[in-house]
Amino acid sequence: MWLALVKKEWQESTFRFLVCLALLTIVYVFIYTMMATATPLVVFIGVVVVLLHVFYLFLTLLASLIKEWKEHTSHLWMNLPVPGWKLLSAKVAIGFSQFMILIIYGMVAVDIMLQKLINLSFAGSGIDYTESLNIGLNLYRELSPWIVLMISQGALQLGLAALFIFVFSKVIRPFGWLIAIIITFAANHLLSAVKNTEGYQTITQWVPLLDGQQVHEKVAIHLLQPVEAELNEQIIQTIYLGQVVAEVLFILVVFWMITWLFDQKAEL
Amino acid sequence: MTPPLIKLNQVSKKYLNQTALTNITFQLTKSGIYGVIGPNGSGKTTLLKIMAGLLRSSKGTVEIMEKPVTRLSSQHIAFLSEADSLYSFQTVNQMVDFCHNVMPDFSKDKALNMIQSLNIEKDKKIKHLSKGNRARVKIVLTLSRQVPVLLMDEPLSGLDPLVREDILRMIVMNVDVEEQILVLSTHEVSEVEPFLDHVIFMKNGTCLLEKSVEQLREEKGQSVVEAMREVLS
């Protein structure tokens, strides 16, 4: 049953996904060819591309839900004798799979660009960056699963926000979406405050998976000047298994609440 | 005593300042074909959507099999929308497979037999079908569900007379009037009159009359059309 829903979601979103993939390819080719000459522009486009990845799930879920309503297929979709969690999770599963393809594609593209950067000559600058860049590339490869994990976490949270905002807009009319946005920001603020409490940290800081101190030292020693390294604050935090479990639980609870709203309160 | 299959009690619906339904109360206890009849804007669509659990009433209660109606009541209710609600990117075959895989109560054999008898091309995408055939497929998919309640919102709307006749025949032939309740809304009575067992007349969001066609004939000596003229004028 669920797989049939997933297949339908894949059929529905294939065109959108392929357009995104094609656009990203154009952007990567542009960055690759222009990286030696137009550095500020390339950096700007790079930032935009990273943001696009983080927002992909948010945007694709909204697009899919809006399309159900715009094309009146919601009349059939809402009348399917299937619990809401199956209907909504099929959409999330496809959106997230496409996001994963895009992020892996993006990570490979960055790897190729870093390799090109190493090969580029920096004649005239007077400084040889080759060694630092090589270390940077190795570090990037070593940390890439964590980069994917962190971007995925952000993307999933934004995806849930998209689901919540849309479903809530079908529960309270006419300004349910606005109320949902306010609730999302308030809940996010509250969650951040809870995460900073000693109690939360005590509960979740068990089984370190990534030692932030170690990573910071590597970055500082190899990539920064000694003075900078000392002054620089540790920006990479240690990641614990407990934090990952807490995040997963949080996502599941929020998802369950959204599906309850969808099944019991949402309207056409 | 059989509990009412669908029970509406003082149901009202408001969209912002606009009232769509006011204090609708009735019970549908017997199987058969019910016609919800009324002019455009009388609240027929809203009523059917509320009965399907796709809209919430602003006041009052709706129950199906003694449980409050929600979206999950779709286990017992098949709803046919007046709008084109099929996935246009799927072929007819894919649509049938999708329904078969997603709806435990869906009879694939029944759907394929009906599609074959209607000469609809199974490999064509929904978006490439004519309006009449899209309506036929939509109705086939609804009729292929083995559920106690079928709700059809204006199934004949916007179709030419030949297609309407064809579709009406298909509906009547494929509803199990001994086991299922079919509620269909329409504003054109003459075509559906011969098939109706019960009528619900609506005007300006209120239910003016709910009676069996037999009762109308016996008590008032009226046909549905005559009763409609009297009640809705």
From TrEMBL, chain A:
> Transmembrane ranges?
15-35, 41-66, 87-108, 146-168, 175-194, 240-262
Sorted alphabetically, the keyword list is: Membrane, Transmembrane, Transmembrane helix
Q: Domain of life here?
A: Bacteria
Membrane in keyword set: yes
Q: What is this protein called?
A: Uncharacterized protein
- Write down the species: Salipaludibacillus keqinensis
Question: Lineage in the entry?
Answer: Bacteria, Bacillati, Bacillota, Bacilli, Bacillales
TrEMBL record, chain B:
Return the Pfam families for the record. Answer: ABC_tran
**TM region positions:** none
Domain ABC transporter: from-to ranges: 6-229
- InterPro entries linked: AAA+_ATPase (IPR003593), ABC_transporter-like_ATP-bd (IPR003439), ABC_transporter-like_CS (IPR017871), P-loop_NTPase (IPR027417)
- Give an example GO molecular function: ATP hydrolysis activity
User: Gene3D superfamilies recorded for this chain?
Assistant: P-loop containing nucleotide triphosphate hydrolases
Which keywords does this Swiss-Prot/TrEMBL entry list? ATP-binding, Nucleotide-binding
- SMART domains (alphabetical): AAA (SM00382)
Report what the protein is called. Answer: Spermidine/putrescine ABC transporter ATP-binding protein
